[in-house]
Amino acid sequence: MLESFKKHIASRLAFLNSSKLLIAISGGIDSVVLTHLCYKMGLNVALAHCNFNLRGEESDADEAFVLQFAEALDVEVFVENFDTKAYASDGKLSIQMAARELRYRWFEALATQLQFDYVLTAHHADDNLETFLINFTRGTGIEGLIGIPEVNDIFVRPLLPFSSQDILAYAKQNHLTWRDDSSNASTKYLRNKLRHEVIPVLKAINPTLLQNFQTTLNHLNDTIAIVDESMDAFLNKAIDNVSETSMTFKIAAFKEVENIKSYVYETFKIFGFTQWNDIENLLDAQSGKWVSSATHRLIKDRDFLLLSEIENAKPILQVILENASKIETPLGILNFEIVEGPQKSDSKTIFVDKDLLHFPLVIREKEEGDVFFPLGMQGKKKVSKYFKDEKFSLLDKEQARLLCSNNDIVWIIGKRADNRFKVTEKTKTILKITLE
Amino acid sequence: MLESFKKHIASRLAFLNSSKLLIAISGGIDSVVLTHLCYKMGLNVALAHCNFNLRGEESDADEAFVLQFAEALDVEVFVENFDTKAYASDGKLSIQMAARELRYRWFEALATQLQFDYVLTAHHADDNLETFLINFTRGTGIEGLIGIPEVNDIFVRPLLPFSSQDILAYAKQNHLTWRDDSSNASTKYLRNKLRHEVIPVLKAINPTLLQNFQTTLNHLNDTIAIVDESMDAFLNKAIDNVSETSMTFKIAAFKEVENIKSYVYETFKIFGFTQWNDIENLLDAQSGKWVSSATHRLIKDRDFLLLSEIENAKPILQVILENASKIETPLGILNFEIVEGPQKSDSKTIFVDKDLLHFPLVIREKEEGDVFFPLGMQGKKKVSKYFKDEKFSLLDKEQARLLCSNNDIVWIIGKRADNRFKVTEKTKTILKITLE
After folding, report:
1. Could you tell me which chain B residue has the CA closest to the CA of A207?
2. CA neighbours within 13 Å on the CB side: how many for A6?
3. Which residues of B are annotated as a binding site for ATP?
4. What is known of its domains (chains A, B) (predicted)?
5. Which residues of chain B does A257 touch, with a Cβ-Cβ cutoff of 8 Å?
6. Position A264 pLDDT exceeds 90
7. Which of B131, B132, B216, B235 to substitute to test the interface with A, most A CBs within 10 Å?
8. Cβ B136–A201 below 8 Å, yes or no?
9. What is the pLDDT of residue A406?
10. Helix, strand or coil for residue A364?
């Protein structure tokens, strides 16, 4: 394998020869073999090991193993300990996502600070095949079928053409030792089923499965290159405006293409949407109609689709566009009007600093954990506490509606405005909102 | 299943309700269930059964079963007997390909003659999934992963959203009987391995596998729509000229795109090529270089790529473009010159009617079965017979080279010209070819 590894580096990754490289090493067979191959080739490498402290003594034994391995090869090694569980719970991430984020962030920081040109990871052909099959069983698009990129920014995967069988053979031939990772049992279950039950049968059907898979990946990547090129051209025409929190798309651009659905899908797929028919219908819908994903909201606004990011999205009832003047709500009609000079808010009429609002505003019901800053009061208050203090009946509570900007409450409609949006000396544009 | 079948027809294939339909029925469970569903829905159907006479009594029993089934439902039925083996050997086709060709040809003829609007076939979701996996194990591009089209010209597959499980359940519920097909063992081996060993594990990993697969197919089809649209635009620019036997592509068009390889692949993949790097290199190669597939040849000609169809392609040694004036060959230099007035060919110099030639000409060795029409003789002669009559030594035979147009011999170079290309009264352009 050393010979074919050398050939592979020479033909496709020759830039590694003259680079300072950091190898991400877990202590498992793949990263141990990658390290050994790079060492044998005389590449300029150092090692980086993350101890995620998720498996107690086992994690520490992995760390000790990596330190020993580095010493045996006389290669520099960096080790970082993470409190992965705390990071996951702070960021509301799965343990797996948290570990991934910590790992990649640390590698990037190390590379920047210590001038490593590239970080090598030990993904191989079977990883790629398993990822393909996992995505396939879940349902995916072409982007889920094209595998892990060989080079992605500073991350390089030199083992991608090699099978786990190649890697095991090399490890045995070179009398290498490695650590088996018992973690990640749920992913392991899935990958193990594929590895032991599905892939062997596919290989029996076609012994050159992995090479054929490589052919497929190459063709799919070629196809993606064409899609990307034509999407770039399309988005150049379609995008009207981009701000920090939103993007505006011209509906006319979608109407010009032959297959609208395809362009809708390609344009919005990275924003977590799944209701493709609804989005297609949005093109011809009334202004103010919208479709949400877990992270984004797409709103019809005259000749445009307005895409905005939503944090911790809550179910919304209505959307209010920047140019709205009159909106019918279950509580009555809301009027919006730009006015001159500061005036005092009351329960039915509020005056807010328009520049502090992030349009589109939304109207929604109260949700668990809602907090606001009641106008005229110091500090914040739970909306549930406010309801209680104001002696709201159960019906009052159910019928209460919140006017929000980016999930911040602007107004408990018809009841109490929020301090954060009030008119101050700095206000340039005053928006008057009245409940009829 | 009848209800969901009705819904599917109503929502996606409503045109079937007012059409005259022919159902392709083998007697197997899938086509029996399709027939029964259409019958129950009251669609206007007739049946068409092919007896390929490949399994003796079994084939006849299938035919008898279909006749009986049609009578029980009181539905018109057409049966055709084919001598599939003879057709296969005549056309040098596999039995499977021959049966496929015969079947689709007959369906089309029936539909045309008897005014059927559509032909229904019983492909279902598991067929689609198996096809995906088979193509995947062989290595493919996106076109091998998008499944069987629901509607393709007059052919419609109304069972595509339904699984084999749905179909079996319906057959049992309705006490239907059907014939099991023992043929096609090699395909069956492959499909059986997938059906019994791979797909159940994938379904265990994800019980909604078939729905998720449908999602994947939809996304991939969306992607293909974008690729098709941009390839249409690209080919509009790239294609310079199309004749009955060839197409000319502007190399400049390939040089303008971002990812040349992708466009090379998408442009030429339907012509059976596999050497994508060679074709990419052709863009910058000398005029006269070429790459062949089993059916086509792509030749560099100045600023163009010339694609020509080749029947029963034989290995070629050299290619001669229309504008060539001097070509070095192992026999000496060939000179090409347009001349005025008729002159007499001899062994070293021939005069041919240029308009009868299909460029590019090729130079090749003699192959088994080669025949030509010796100039000045009546009728044709085997080249091997000519060699024998002329008392060619073994070395003479080995060194002999044939100048060919579309596989027809123009000249046994330096020896004897062919009658078919000689200059006549009708000749407008005389091409003089000399061997120095």
Report:
1. B137
2. 7
3. 26-31
4. The N-terminal region contains the highly conserved SGGXDS motif, predicted to be a P-loop motif involved in ATP binding.
5. 229
6. yes
7. B216
8. no
9. 80
10. strand
User: Does A211-313 match A318-435 in CATH topology?
Assistant: no
Q: Looking at the partner chain, which of A141, A145, A229 has a beta carbon nearest the beta carbon of B258? A: A229
Say yes or no for a CB contact (<8 Å) between A226 and B229. Answer: no
**Model confidence over A107-144: pLDDT tens digits?**
999 999 999 999 999 999 988 999 899 999 988 989 88
| Contact pairs from chain A to chain B, CB under 8 Å | 139
The yes or no reply on domain B237-309 and CATH 3.30.465.60 is yes
Amino acid at A347: S
Adjacency order of strands within the sheet including B304-309? B239-242, B246-250, B304-309, B296-301, B290-292
- Residue B227 with chain A: CB contacts under 8 Å: 223, 226-227, 230
**Least confident interval from A340-344, A348-352, B181-185, B390-394:** B181-185
H/E element, B291: strand B290-292
Q: CA–CA separation, B267 vs B62, rounded Å?
A: 44
User: Can you tell me whether residue A412 is helix, strand or coil?
Assistant: strand
| A242 vs A173, residue with greater confidence | A173
Which conformational region is residue B142 in: left (phi greater than 0), alpha (psi within -120 to 50 degrees), or beta? alpha
- Tell me which chain A residues have a C-beta less than 8 angstroms from the C-beta of B133: 202
pLDDT at B431 over 80: yes
Q: What are phi and psi of A164, to 5 degrees?
A: -65, -30
Can you name the CATH fold of A211-313? 3.30.465
Confirm or reject contact between A223 and chain B (CB < 8 A): yes
pLDDT for residue B310: 74
Q: Is B230 near chain A, with CB under 8 Å?
A: yes
Would you place residue B84 in the very low, low, confident or very high pLDDT band (cuts 50, 70, 90)?
confident
Contacts of B370 (CB under 8 A, 6+ apart): B382, B383, B384, B402, B409
What's the pLDDT score for residue B122? 95
Asked if A226 and B259 count as a contact pair (C-beta separation under 8 A), the reply is yes
- Mutation target to probe the A interface, by most A beta carbons within 10 A, among B132, B197, B226 is B226
**pLDDT tens digits, A337-385:** 999 877 788 889 999 999 999 888 888 888 888 899 998 888 899 999 9
For domain A2-205, the CATH superfamily is HUPs (3.40.50.620)
Residue B190 forms contact with A (CB below 8 Å): yes
* Domain spanning A318-435: CATH 3.50.40.10: yes
Q: What is the mean pLDDT of residues A157-167?
A: 92
- Per-residue pLDDT tens for A318-337? 888 887 888 888 888 999 99
Percent of chain A with pLDDT over 90: 50
Known binding-site residues of A for ATP equal 26-31
Delimit the domains of chain A by residue range.
2-205, 211-313, 318-435
Q: Does the CB of B275 have a partner CB in chain A at under 8 Å? A: no
Work out the minimum CA distance from A172 to partner chain B, whole angstroms: 29
Note whether A139 contacts B258, CB cutoff 8 Å. Answer: no
Question: Residue B222: closest CA among chain A residues belongs to which residue?
Answer: A262
What ipTM was assigned to the predicted interfaces of this complex? 0.71
Considering only residues 231 to 250 of chain A, which have any Cβ-Cβ distance to chain B shorter than 8 Å?
Answer: 231
Total Cβ atoms within 10 A of residue B39: 16
Q: Which pLDDT does position A188 carry in this prediction? A: 67
Give me the DSSP letters along B324-392.
--EEEETTEEEEEEEESS-----SSEEEEEGGG--SSEEEE---TT-EE-BTTSSS-EEHHHHHHHTT-
Residue B206 with chain A: CB contacts under 8 Å: 137-138
